[in-house]
Structure formats: structure tokens, C-alpha cells
Amino acid sequence: MVRRSLFAKSIRDMQKSKAQFISIFIMATLAVTIVTGLDSVWKTIYDNSSAMYAATNISDMWINVLNPSEKELWSISRINGVEKTEKRFTINALTGLEGRPTLRIYAVSDQSTLDRPMLKQGGLSSRSGAILDVAFAKKHGLKINDEVAVKVNDKWVTFRIEGLAQSSEHIYSVKGTTSIVPDSGKYGFIIVNEEMLKSIYGQKVYNQVCLKLSPAADVTRVEAEADKIIGDDLIGIVARGDDSSTNNINANIRQFKTLATVFPLMFFLVTALITQSTMLRMIESQRSQIGILKALGYTKRSILWHYTSYGVYMGLLGAFLGLLIGPNFFGRLLIPWLQLSFTDYRISVNLVNFIFSLILILACTGGVSLYACLKLLRDSPSVLLRDKPPKEGSHIFLEFFPKLWNRMRFSRKLIARNTLKNKMRMIMSVLGITGCTGLVVAAFTLCNMVGGIARQTYDITYTYDQKIILDKKADYRFINNLRLDGTIQQMEETAVEIICPDGKRTMKQLTVFSQDSPLVHLKDVRGNPVLLPDNGITMTRKLAQTLNVKAGDMIELKRAGKGYVKVPVRQIVYLATGQGMYMTDEYFELIGEIFKPTVMLVKWAHQPDRAFLDSDYVDEYVDRTSQIKDVKSSTKVVYIAAILLIFMGGILAFVVLYNSSILNFSERIRDLTTLKVLGFYQKEIRSLVLTENILSVVLGSVFGIPVGKVIAGLAASGLDDQMDLLSKISFGTVALSGLITFVFALIINSIVAEKMKNIDMLESLKSVE
Amino acid sequence: MSQKMSCGRPGQFYPALLHLDKGRRLMSFITFENVEREYHVGGHTIKAVDGISFGIEQGTVNVVLGQSGAGKTTVLNLLGGMDSPTKGRIIVGDQEISKMSEHELTTYRRNKIGFVFQFYNLVPNLTVLENVQLAKEICSDPLDSEEMLTKVGLENRLDNFPSQISGGEQQRVSIARALAKNPQIVLCDEPTGALDSATGRKVLKLICNAASSMGKTVIIVTHNALIADMADVVIHMKDGKINEIRYNDSPKDAEEIIW
């Protein structure tokens, strides 16, 4: 009986301050939605990729070496930490299909246990069959029993498709030479039996050793020892996490983890503040009711719980609704954009983190209500039943500047005193507006940053029309003599093994071209043009950061068929996407290598030379315009995220300002009514309440700019190891964000003004508090 | 208009033309003509004021007397332009306020009315002096705030906040605020309702002096019949109608009244 009537009171109280409680609910829901949503993104990726890695028994390391001897293989398997070694052959090959897509061939033995494909349909049943990338097959309309032809070692070989599968080495699958985004129509994998190599090369050849390590193995040490064993024949070593697919996945997981932790904090904070101001006001206005309850004999505990329950109900409701919405909304929205090759995945929910956020939200709502109530409960019933002592007035710091103070109008003085005495309310508004402006600034900055990628890379740095991958047999001197109608620049792109000063080993892309570079204009971070130094190596900024290398350091470079050579890092350049190292052809030959161009950049004077492009000299080519389109499409998700950010900023501003205004208004309704009776116009009364909003908008906007920069930096830093984004705030962004925040504030002001019009002068004056 | 009556001075005459005669020109400063005010509450219609007519002379002290629910507060609200009648006319000076828009009523209130509330209604975040100086901001022709506060005897409290002074002092500030606006009419809603009788008497004396020394028209709404003895005119209301209008030949001095 007791519980039910108190509960009925809760419902009625909440209905009376509907707007406030809805605000608390919205904020709590939003906070938990963001946490669970972002969490579910990384957890889904993690769960699905981990499951796939386990199911396919993915290797921990791949050593690229041509035809490793049995002795070398045996020595490697004896390295401390190595559990299993297998060898295979892998190479990129052109197909005869439309658009000249590339397939990466894996020729493995039928006893191989590492890097197994994840079969979706069929399976290898004969030695001449192949397992094809299921996404690639779909794009090209290939089914089981169809045939696909690939060009290896200048020979065309045909395979019959016996199975369709996914590969854990190709979850994020990028070809690298001509594109930076996954396109399952242009690049896929095909797994064949090693016996087929006989018909291509005349014998079985191998160029990769796959290693499975024990969990406690020291990766760097294993790499070093394997290097020593193989010696000069080594091409490079790639550890799991360094190859593009796992690297990308790890980066995504890392980034969403960071976002999930940092981003929602603001919303939790605002939830706590709104609850505090709402409950404080309500409990104070229910002074006499609490006195009555006490006098009637309700225990302190039941009264405490009664008021705490308001916050707890809202927090619980919000948290569970957030749990429902978050993963579904964020997960379904964002994961597809990451372009991972999972087809059927279930959204995973990080329940552990949800429990944390549930506790946090309950602390922000219930805990705060409890605290507000505790203060009042200390008084005896008789004290509570008596009238509230009138509000104390006091002097504020501004009055210490009499020259300023005495010249202020009374409405201004009133606003000043009122604002400075209610610091909590002001803090809440400023915080909310800071959040809103921060989100809007971040949204626009992200769009700017991402929009600038294509421009920086494919407009400013590269100015070719086409990038042509030359056939391996093409002789560059012969091509020079062809006198093609345009500007030509020949480059060699190769992957080399390097050892960084801190001992880290990795394989990275090296691009070699002459200092005189008509179609590649490398720039430094500030945009100044940079010539390739002829006495060392050049590195892109992001890569240098990732490897912990700076200008002046020495790195060891593995030369083909020879040992390592120490090269100094002379220059750092800035490239928004496509990180790597650069060297002049002269220096390349100086250190003992042979310059053999693999790539040709061309800017046609008139029409593209079709005959040349279709000739045997050319393996494939890509237009710069389509590269720009690729980049733009891969970053489209950022625009969606930006809209989300602005939307959330709007909600934040609305909720905070609305609550703050209503609080401001209802705390002073008596005074405002008095002033109305005294003859103040509606306009003047409105400004007494709403000027404070303008103040917090101005303050909040100013604080919001650095906050926005930080948010944008956070979101952009973890995107990908291949992207290096400069977070620059432009004046336009700031102005636009300020404008938007201001518009939000104006809308709220007019809504509140409407509510204020209905001050019932007669009612408000009659009753004592 | 003949000279006004100041309260507390026996033997004064007062103008004979206080009644409204149908067909005769309205001569009073304030005129209520068949005023009705209806409220619609949950399906019922309540007539707070049910067809009342009276006139008030400039510079007089008037008391509107009645029990709770009699309609006296409604009359005050109508007089102050905080409410508009559903029927009838209200004329103040040469303005017909019953037909005014809300903005015009606010202007009317701003310039012509001074208000003294039962619960003082001072702004807690302004000092005593600032509360009165409020008037300066909205009035076209205000009186000096410090002078008003000295007049009510609070020259030593100028820098205090309302929470730091007694109830009687707060009410005196309220009066100073009302007078600083230099209004034509001073409306008082149970001004002594929250005060003890000694303080209340002091407050009443101040209010009446406003009429005598400054020529203001004072209208006090109360349920305390003893106060009525102080007034020049007593309008007794009952159930939304005027019960009777009484004229005091010799209104008592505030100090003489004891309740």
C-alpha cells in the first residue's frame, strides 16, 4: 500500500516535470547508445576476425624467399618459438576476365594446414581445380565448374573452379600497386594445388615460408634468427599484423576502442548535470512534502529510495534502450563501410562494457538524486514544513569594479548576479554548448580532412594521367625509344625489408625514380616542394611515425640477393594516403641495386595511346581520375559520421539549453511575475532569462573549438596506417559551427519564450513558496 | 476636480459627485461600468466579478473590503491592467483600459500603477537600493530612489539584501519601489497581511501619506474591516457584487487603528 501510493506519486511528479525527465532519459539513452554502439563495432570485427583466424589457422609470419632449401626450412623450424613451418608459392596474376582484374595465386600442398581457406561452397577435389575468392566470383558471375584463366610466367593457365571460399589473409583486401581501397571485382585470391606449378615453371617452386609461432614467442627475435639463417636470399619477412589485411583490422579495432571510451564521457557528464539540476529543484520544491512524509512516519530509507528511484528508473530505462539501439544502429551503419569481406556476421555486443556504463549511468542519475535528497533529509519535519527561508542575496565579484558596475543597467545587474550565483546551471549550459560546438566543429573538420586527401595525393603530389604497370619482360630503354606522345616518368616500385633503429623489422614499399620528377611532386608537411635527396632515403611522415624513425636516423635496407646496407633517412615528406619510402635511382644504384622500372607514369600530350596501352608491354594501368573516385568513395562513411555528430550536437544543445532555461525561469518565476506586474514588457522579461543562454552559447562556442579539434584528431588518427590526416581548423569551419550553434540556441530561446508568455501573474503572486 | 481628501485629518470635505448616475457624464478619475469577469474552469463558469460599477476620485484613499472569494483581488487585478473584463468598461483618466492589448496594458501599468504586494515580492538578488532603482529603468519620470527610501525610513539599509532585513522593512522597500515610479495610482494587495499589527500600522501610515503629500490615488484591498476606517471610501464586496459603498467623513489616522 505504502509502496504503491509513493510510486503513484513518482509517476505524477515525473509527469509534471515531463520535459526534464524526458531530457534525462534522452541523455542517458544517448550516452549508453554511443558506448554500446561503438563498442559493438570493434567487438564484432574482433570476434569475427578472431574466429576466422582460428578456423583458417592463419600463420603468424610469412618469410618471402625464393626456393628455400630443406636445410633452411629445418633450421627455421628449430628456432625457439616456432611451432610449425610450411612452404608455398604466391604471386599476383592477371586474369583474362573483363577489366583485367588481378588474382593472387596461392599454390599449396594438399597437406598444408596453415592459412586454410574458409570454404563457403565446394572444395578442392582434384589437383587441377582451384578455390576462388567468393566475393570475386560473385562480382564476375563465376560459379563452381566454371573456368578461370590466369597469366603466370607469361603463360596462360586455366583452372576449374571447384570451391568458393573466404581467406583470412584477405579480409581487408587491397592490391596496393594501383589502388588503396578494396574492390572485390578488381582483386581477389585463388588457391590451387602446388602440382600445377610444374606446368607453369616446369617444377615446383616456392617463394614463401609460413610460420606458426607459440603464443609466447618473441617475434622480433624469430625474425632476426630467420634472417640470419636465410642470409642474402631473403626478400622480406612479414609478421601478422604488418600485412595490410590484419593491419587494417587491428587499426579499426584500436580506433573504435578509443572512441568508445572517450567520446561518450561528455554525454555521461551532461546526464549527471541535468539530473542534478532537475532533482535538486524538484526535491527543494517538495520540501513540505518531505516534511509531511517524515511527520507521517515514513522511514528515512523509504523517502530516500523514493526520490532516488526517479533517477534510477530513468537511468535503467535509458541504459536498456541504449543497449538495444546502439549495437544495431551503429553496427549496421558503420561496419559495412569498413569494407571488410565478412559476408554474414552477427553483431557482437560488449556486455562487460555495458555493465560498466550501466553502473556509470545509474551513478549519474540515481546517485545524484540520492545526494540531492540526503541534504534535505537532515532537517526535522517541522523545519521542512515551515516555509523555505528566502533566497539569500549576496554581492558578486563584478561589484568590485564600481566603474563598470555602476554603469550597468538593472536588468544587466540582475542577470549578472543571477548567473554568477547559479554556477552549476551555468556550468551545465556551457558544458553542453561546448559539446555541441565541439561535435559540429569535429564534423566539419573531418569532412575537410577527408575531402583533402584526394586533392593532396592525386592533384598536388601526383599529376599523371595514368599509372601503368609494366610487363616484367619490358625493357625500359626500349620503351624510351618508343617516343610516346606525352611526358613519361619511370619508377621502380618494390617491397623491401628494413630494420629500424629500434630493432623492428618490417617490409615496406620503396619507390625509386630520378630526382628530375615531372609527374611526382613530393611535398613536406607545410606544402613546400621537396626534391629527393641523392644521399639517402626519404620516408612519408605517417610511416616514420609508425616506425619511430626521424630524419637523421639510420635504417638497414635489405638489397635483393645481397646483405643489408645502412641508409640514412634524409627527408620526411607528407602524403595523405599511400605511405612508403622514396629514393633516387642514382642512390639506388650507389647502394648496389639495379634500377629496373616496373611502373610508368604518363601524361599524354593529346589522346592516350591506345595501341600502347593494349600492347604486351603493359600489364595493367589505372587512371588518376578513377583513383580519385576510389578514395572519395572509401571515405564516404566520414560524411555519414559527420551528420551523426552534428545531430548529436544538436540534441545536446537542445536538451541542455532547454533545461537550463526552464530551470532559470521557474526558479525566478516569482520575481519575473513581480517585474511583469511592475510593468516590465514581455521582451524585457524574456531577456532576463534568455540572455544567460546567449552567454553560455558564446562561452561554449569558444571552448568548443579546441574540443572539436581534439575529437576530430581522435577520429582521424586511428583510421588507417596508410592515411595521414592533418587536422586543420579553417576559419570557415569555425564560423559555420558557431552559426549553427547559434541557430540552435535561437530556436530554443523562442520555444522557451513561448512558454514564458503564459505566466499567470495572478496565480504566481498569490501563493507563497 | 475638487481637491483630494487626505486621510487622518478630520473635518475635511469631499466631493459630492462620487456616485455614477446613468446618463450623467463620468467625472471620476477611475470608473468601473458594469464590469463582469467570468472564468471557465472545468466546465463551470465562475463569475468573479458580476456587474459592478463605481467611481474613484483622484487623491483619495480607497479600501476594497471583502471576505475571500468576494472578488476584491479580481478588482485589483482589473484596476492594475493584469486582467481584462469579459464585459463592461473600465476607464482610468482618459484611457479605456478594458479595450487595451496586452502590450498597451503593460505600458499603462508601467507608467501609471505602483504595486504593493502582500508578500513584498522584492527581487532577492538586488539590494534594497537596487530594488527601488528598478523603477528608474522603466519609468519615464521616476522619483529619486534614495529620497523614497529615506522617506520610508530605510536610509541605513540601502546596501542590504532583502534576506537581511525584517518583514516590515521589506514592505517599506516595496512601498518605496511603488512610489519611486511616480505613479498616479498605488494598488495594495493586503499590505499588512504578513505583518504584526504595530508594523502594519506604520506601513499603512506611509501608504496614506502618499495620498496626502504626493496626491496619489490609493486603493487597498483587504479583508480586515478595521483598516477600512482609515479610508475615504470603502467599497464593500460580497460574492462578486458590490454590497455597499461607504464614505468616511472623518477617516481615522493609521496610528489610531488597532487590530
Low-confidence segments of chain A, given as residue ranges, are none
What topology, given as strand order, has the largest sheet of chain A? Answer: 2-3-8-5-7-6
Gyration radius of chain B, rounded = 18 Å
Helical stretch tally of chain A: 25
Describe this protein's structure.
Chain A is α+β, with helices and mostly antiparallel strands. Chain A has 25 helices and 19 strands. In chain A, strands 2-3-8-5-7-6 form a 6-stranded mixed β-barrel. In chain A, a hairpin with a 5-residue loop joins β12 and β13. The radius of gyration of chain A is 34 Å and the shape is elongated. The model of chain A has no long low-confidence stretch (mean pLDDT 86). Chain B is α/β, with parallel strands linked by helices and 259 residues long. Chain B has helices at 72-79, 102-112, 128-138, 145-151, 167-180, 197-214, 225-228, and strands spanning 30-41, 44-56, 61-65, 87-92, 95-96, 113-116, 185-189, 217-222, 233-238, 241-247. At the A-B interface, α14, α22 and α25 of A face α2 and α3 of B.
